[in-house]
Model the fold of this input.
Amino acid sequence: MERLKTKHEVNNYLLMAQNGHMPLFFREWLPQQSTKVINYSSASKNVKSVFQKLSRHRSIDKMQTAIISMDQDERSEFMSSFLKMVEYNSLKETQLLQ
Done:
């Protein structure tokens, strides 16, 4: 049950990000993405593992606090992975429209 809930939460946050709303991240964090190339499968594993940790928090403020408490590299990797998943899902939808 917990696994399905986390997957649902990940999908909700991905859909919000595709529409330009990223409530988990502060604007100041966005330019700090790593330039390292990451593939979708490792990005997906990384995002799901972080959301497993975040799933015990119910409010966005507490989730942001948990993300703030991550070290800089871990947070950058999570954000890069999250944005990679958003990009992949957006491109997948675009291909379906053509």
About this structure: Residues 72-97 form the longest helix (26 residues). Helices lie at 2-18, 40-54, 60-68, 72-97. The chain has a mean pLDDT of 81.
